[in-house]
Amino acid sequence: MSVPFSTPEEPAHPDSWLVRAIERLSGIGSWIAAACVLMIMGLISVEVVMRYFGKSTMVSDEISGYLYAAIVFFGLAETLRCKAFIRFEAVYDRMRGRVALAVRWLFVLITMGYVSVLLGDAIRDVHYLYTTDVRSDSLLRTPLFLAHAVMVIGWAMLLMQLLTYVLRRMRNVP
After folding, report:
1. Domain contains 2
2. Going along 27-170, which residue ranges are E strands?
3. Alpha-carbon dihedral of residues 36, 39, 45, 46, nearest 10 degrees?
């Protein structure tokens, strides 16, 4: 009887339904981010063509800014899942055994704490913007809680993706 080969990216035993759901959510976030890139490209193209005829949408810069924020925050969890965050490889490569494992645990736990604080602040910010009906000073008069809600979603998705590392007992820490 042969033992199936397993890489750190592909564990030999199946993940829990929660881990699979979080990873699926991260993938959805990346698709939303990709769609936002396409929307920015389309919006800028429309603006360029309209300016050729002496017209303007007058709102392309504001909408592009909101879409850019969506790209960043919806892409956070997938970036972590794909191990694409910037880190100090020279430091990680020199660590071995228990020291490396301790540093990985420390990294994930500190990051989870930091992201939790950012998430809490973002939730308070969205609540304040919603209850006071703060709007942008542009032609659109966009309710700013909508734009800031993207941060809440992004931080929450990143926190959940960090949780998958804890649930997997740190086998696959970036």
Report:
1. no
2. none
3. -140
Per the listing, tokens 């929450």 go with: 156
144 domain-assigned: yes
Domain that holds residue 36: 17-84+98-167
Close Cβ partners of 162 (under 8 Å, ≥ 6 residues apart):
80, 108, 111, 112, 115
Instruction: Kindly report the pTM of this predicted structure.
Output: 0.82
pLDDT in tens, 134-152: 999 999 999 999 999 999 9
SS3 10: strand
Q: Is 133 left (phi over 0), alpha (psi -120 to 50) or beta?
A: left
- The H-or-E segment that residue 34 falls in is helix 17-52
Structural domains counted in the chain: 1
